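Support reply, case 0932

Customer input (verbatim):
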Amino acid sequence: MDLLKGKAVVVTGAGRGLGEAYAMQAARAGASVVVNDVEGELAEAVAGRIAREGGRALASSQSVRDPDQASAIVERCLAQFGRIDGLVNNAGLHYEALPWAEDVDAARELIEVNVLGVLYCGLAAARVMRRQRAGSIINVASASLFGQRRAGTYAASKGAVAALTSSWALDFEALGVRVNAVCPQAWTRMVQASPTARMHCAPDHTPERVAPLVIYLLSDLSTGITGQVIRFTGDQLQLLHQPGFRDPELRSERWGVTDIAAAFESVLGDYLEPFGVQKLTPPGPRMPAPGASVPTAGD
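Our regenerated output:
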């Protein structure tokens, strides 16, 4: 499979888990890969595996949370491979804590990696992709952006990533650069450390099963696909609703507190939204239109 032949790709947080799977499968698809991870030995090990399989890879241990180091990751890709066609913003942190037990230092570190790391790497890649008028940026979000118990800071970081994805997709719309986000679910260290996540992820949902979505989004097969947030578990593939305003829309020349209270009591109270990923019921399979063919995993 040469879907990425001739392309140069950066994958952050690629020393293990999902990032490792993205990097390995990108290389097997023909890409030259910058394997980035702050744990340099892990990055070197993955780059070594790619080389032993006949691929091209460069290990990087720069931290995405530092803007200069994030820029250096992209610069190393340019220096080694001459261009950057894909960026997978996979590096991320996760922990669980109730709001009254949050550690502000841990929260700051998570935001620096999960949000600013995506921003810094994305800005560095964006400047090059704008000149190339081509490229694909893939940000890693999470269904936790709907809200998740004991994970407020993490959920907020992934909500920020989703909003950033939509905004960048608009900015790049006329420049040939695609920006999408994925919400992967796989049996990784992060999932194994979370009792809640373990309940919703089977051990056979391996990172290798999830990686094909990222390869698709890096490839020219996904031309025209941008601004999307996509959930993939290895056996379930679906788009997330974009935030939007919902009906009914109530209008009045002047709203007082009692008017607003009456609106909720008489109308809006019947339209309150479910909140939190635990309260959302996954939709059933969409029925095809009569006569339509349904693709299968083997197609």
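We compared this against your earlier run and they match. Two observations from our side: DSSP finds nine helices and eight strands in the chain. Strands lie at 8-11, 32-36, 56-60, 86-89, 135-140, 177-184, 229-232, 237-239. Please reopen the case if you see a mismatch on your end.
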